[in-house]
Amino acid sequence: MIRPVKNWTTTTKVDIEMVLYGILGVDEKSQTVTSHIWVTKYWTNEFLTWNQSDFCGIDEVSVPKEKLWIPEIIIQQDASDDGSIHEDPWVIMRPDGSMFTFLRQRLTFTCRFDLYKFPFDSQVCNITFISMNTVRSLVLGSAINGSVLMVTSTQFMITQGEWGLKDIELVSGNITNGWRYHSTLSYTVTLDRKPFLYVINFIIPLVYLLFLDLASFSISVDSGEKFGFKVTVLLSISVLLLILKDILPSTEVDLPVIANLCVAVFTLVWLSVLESMLVSFLLNLDPCCDKESKKIYMKKDINVHKEAEEENGQVKPEQSFFPLGKLGDVELLKLILEEVKAARQEAGCQKKPRCYRRVATIIDNLFFVGYLLTFVAFVMHICFGWMNL
């Protein structure tokens, strides 16, 4: 039940060997990493030694854990439940008093993520073992060095998911709770994200939507389809923003670059919608445009009416050009007034320049040039920006 040393001033050294067998998942929202680890603890019991020649050459003995003193060591960042820990019920002893035991655990540990470069980011997480005894009685050490540990973990790695193991480093130190110091052994694990899936599902569609909005400048405003098309693109970008919201944590510190880009694209398309509304409003202020539109619709109605009467065989010679015979006095007077009004508008259009249409064309061309330059800068930032972060 007590620390196995003959002199109480002797410090017990416990060597730890941790092998990372798998990276099962990373949760950016809760800032946790789930992994599969195998931990081996080595220490020496000064009271349990024997001469092999006196005991038939026995060089190893297994003893139940409850019969021996076991060093109490915890993981500082541990956020997993008790059911995820599977301990070996035996302790392996050797003639010189050295002993070791195994521990297998599905470890969920906390990690402070830096998502500024998402999805081209690398995360540095710590797995810190802390002794419950003071540093005067127990010191933690590593059974193997960092380079061997990295090779071993890479060799036995079962699964990595969207993350790859880049490096593992070991750091020994002490931690204090205010009045006592405890020995620590920290494993610094560096993980690299595999961004291909995010590039296919998020970044490329964002660029395509921006390209579609740029191509919408070729749609005529008079057709009435341009405004609806731009609003559809704006709603599509809103869907991508909702997807990004489900991935990234809600934080105001170090907002990811991709979030800033999404906001910039959303703002750019929103300005494009406003520009389309302004151009359409200016064109509607031009009386010549309204007159031409009404003239086109009147011609279509007259042609349809004439074709219908010709099919029925009801067209008279004097009605072949204009159906005046079927109109009453009031209708005939209204038609004459509309013709006079249309003639006055046509004469006014010939005298007055189309200033509103000219202003709308200038605004549309200037906005198109600025939009095109912004689009080129956006694509270049996507291609080369993350490389220089």
Quick structural overview:
With 389 residues, the chain is α+β, with helices and mostly antiparallel strands.
Molecular structure report:
This protein is 41% helix and 26% strand. The protein has 389 residues and is α+β, with helices and mostly antiparallel strands. It is rod-shaped and about 135 Å long. 15% of the residues are buried.
Largest sheet geometry: 7 strands, mixed
| Uncertain residue ranges | 290-302, 315-322
* Sequence of secondary-structure elements: EEEEEEEEEHEEHHHHHH
Q: How far do the termini sit from each other?
A: 55 Å
Count of DSSP H/I helices: 7
β-strand number = 11
Structural Rg: 40 Å
Dominant shape: rod-shaped
SS-derived structural category: alpha+beta
Arithmetic mean of pLDDT: 80
Write the topology of this structure.
Layout lengths: L11 E16 L4 E13 L16 E4 L8 E3 L9 E3 L2 E4 L4 E13 L11 E13 L3 E5 L3 H11 L6 E14 L4 E13 L2 H20 L10 H22 L9 H29 L1 H26 L16 H23 L3 H30 L5
Parallel strand pairs: 1-9
Antiparallel strand pairs: 1-2, 2-7, 3-6, 4-8, 5-7, 6-7, 8-11, 10-11
What key phrases describe this protein's structure?
389 residues; alpha+beta; seven-stranded mixed β-sheet; 26% strand
